[in-house]
Specification:
With 193 residues, this protein is an alpha+beta fold. Helices cover 25% and strands 32% of the residues. The strands form two sheets. A five-stranded mixed β-sheet has the order 1-2-6-8-3, with helices on both faces. Strands 4, 5, 7, 9 and 10 form a five-stranded antiparallel β-sheet that branches.
């Protein structure tokens, strides 16, 4: 299942947008945000963010490597609560576009793959364009770091000698112990009180 927000510019030529000069505002197209079980195409995302008003395009492609901590990795498998993951990705992209720290940022595209991702293939791709390279690099890093910290996508590493679910080291989700019965009932009215 492919779910997309925004439209992709399939034309290989850079966009020359009306009013896309420095005085026209922050961004000029709908961001591309996608979660899919299909292989990802970095060129599609680059085409989406290409704009003649931008002097820098930065990309990040997270790929399956063949090893981790000395163990042979055969493939990765990703699962997600897709509606929530897509909503969170959209929120990250919109917040990044609106953030004054990334002034000159014009376009963001982000795609994450679910299911089996063989060695050498991309599980996540981010492309951003900005008027200047610093903002492009900074925004691209911000999107991937925030995605890894907050989007509910889970990774299972399949090794030659077994498998293991992995948490992102950046994950900031709360993993609190379950509350006790006493804690759950502390505010309830008591009989005879």
């Amino acid at each position: 299942a492919v779910e997309t927000a925004g439209v992709s510019n399939s034309d290989a030529r850079p966009r020359q947008l009306v009013g896309s000069g420095a005085m026209s505002g922050r961004h000029t197209s709908e961001p591309l945000v996608r979660i899919t079980h299909e292989p990802l195409d970095i060129q599609e995302l680059v085409r989406h963010v290409t704009d003649t008003a931008c002097g820098g395009i930065a990309t990040f492609s997270g790929t399956t490597r063949d090893n981790f901590d000395g163990r042979e990795v055969v493939r990765l498998e990703y699962e997600a609560y897709e509606p929530m993951a897509l909503k969170e990705l959209r929120s990250i992209v919109q917040a990044t576009l609106a953030d004054p720290a990334f002034s000159g940022l014009r376009h963001v595209a982000c795609a994450h793959r679910l299911g089996v991702v063989p060695n050498g293939e991309s599980s996540v791709i981010i492309a951003v364009s900005a008027e200047h390279r610093k903002e492009a690099f900074d925004a691209c890093r911000h999107v991937i770091d925030t995605l890894k910290a907050s989007v509910p996508i889970w990774k299972k590493e399949i090794y030659a000698d077994g498998s293991s679910w992995k948490a992102n080291k950046e994950w900031i989700g709360v993993e609190a112990p379950l509350p006790t019965t006493a804690a759950l009932t502390a505010d309830l009215p008591r009989e005879g009180a």
